[in-house]
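User: ok so my PI wants both of these folded by tonight, can you help

Assistant: No problem, let's get them done. Here's the first:
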Amino acid sequence: MSRETLCLLPGMMCDGRLFAPQVEALGADHDIVIGDITGADTMSALAELLLESLPDRFNLAGLSMGGIVAQEMVRKAPDRVMRLALIDTSYRPDSDRRRAIRDDQIACVRSDGLEAVFIAEMKPHYLAPSNAEDIKLNALFLDMAMALGPDVFERQSLALRDRPDQTETLRGYAAPSLVLCGAEDRMCPPAIHEQMAALLPDADLVIVEGAGHITTLEAPAAVNTALGAWLTRAAQA
């Protein structure tokens, strides 16, 4: 029996280290690909690049921005995605206020540097309060962001700023889906995930207690269990 591919899409300014516990837990039974979402400044272009690089059929999971790119991939090629997992993410477009904040952040990165903006405006919102002082996690977030650099920050900010609404994409995707988030996710709250699960015709909703926006690292055992169960569900033909 051939092994299925599992494509994991990291969040903004994150790399494959975001999914280290999941790669370790699921890699024995699946061919895992960490998708690159750094090379374009629109969701459409990012989705096209990924679809060109992946097998004809694959499982798809994305966290935060990765989940937003995943929805665009489903919009473009729903029959290629065997199962979909959306983690700590959103289906909605940016509000006018959020678009203005992104423009300000891009300007600040150009003038003050990425590290200052990341530490002041992004990292404080990632973790649940109980995890906020985790030195290793905070160091990892900064290291991933600085490794990707200011040009990636600008491209990803523009892609997020101008992203489309994916309501109809979710309504039309009938394959097994997982919608998961931290109970204390302040960036993409549980209410948004409840809405996504309601839109999807065949979705399981999992809310992880004690976790914030980065559930894959804050609560890896719970995420691994949910992903493992999702991957055993009968995929769409």
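One down. Here's the second:
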Amino acid sequence: MTTLDRKNAFIVLNGLPNIGPITLRRLLDAFHGDPVSIFDAPASQLKAVQGVGEAVVNTLRNWADLLDLDKQLHRMEKSGIRFVVTESDDYPPLLKEIYDPPIGLYWRGKYVLDRPTVAIVGSRRTTVYGRQVARKLGRELARCGFCVVSGGARGIDTEAHKGALEVEGKTIAIMGCGMDIVYPAENFELFNQVAETGAVVSEFPFGRRADRQTFPMRNRIVSGMCQGLIVVESDINGGSMISARFAAEQGRTVFAVPGRIDQATSRGCHQLIREGASLLAKPEDVVEELGYLLINRESDEQLDTPAGPANLTEDEQEVLGHFSGGEVLDMDRLFDLTGKSSPELASVLMMLELKHLVIKRFDGTFEARVQF
């Protein structure tokens, strides 16, 4: 039997039944983040942890009868899947901030988050309008430098992933089941494409099928790893409304796309807007809102540090050149100087912000962070 070292102990803990993420987090906190010591601890010490009773103790004691570690490790290796624990630099940084982050994620794909993230979610039962909007948002936001995150479900999720892939952007699919289960089955090829340049991710061990419990758990990850969440279409009782609630509780920016007043799939979005979600009319709304927030999340030290050499496109070099001499420019002036369309200019400015070369001021104007 494979040795229960630190790495494998995390995999076992995550794969055991009837132990939720909050209890797992409490156990790890009580044992100073050492998963091996949890399996070696006496029952009295385990029961001193809130939420741990006789059932949990028995599960930990008999883990080898409940989970075939060797088989799981073999399947992970064969499928190119790794287990990314919370303490790893590869773990999504924003996800660490939520109340109940998974202790680890099964991660298929070499991509590691290196850019801001935005979630696009919505109904499985969509309209043509909803599908078109979701794909356009996925495409345009990926082009602007965001990683597009969604749940891999049919409908809005699928279109968001496809939109990002169309422009060779980064996208991550969060599964509501084990990684050995393709759900929905028709997205088999889509998940392969996502894993090639992005990642397919799940907190659930092999064999765990999707159910009413796994989907809300999946939704908290979708919202938790993103700066903002967009709801394209949802009924009032749709699963996307749960994602929106999670996002609000986690301090994320919630956007909602308005729809027809006679469509059931628009009711959830309209309710979110009434409750204070940002009305999203075009991709630039997200770029402007999250671009500003992202820049202001940086520390003063980072903001004052001169940017190093950057790989700039011709468009980025052109726009940046207009800021020479300490110029402060608004969008109208940049339109006149560059002749670019609003989406083109917003995209270029967003990339310059992400490269720490341009900053958006409180009054909506832009200026360079360093002098040229």
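DSSP finds 18 helices and twelve strands in the chain. The two ends are 62 Å apart (CA to CA). Good luck tonight!
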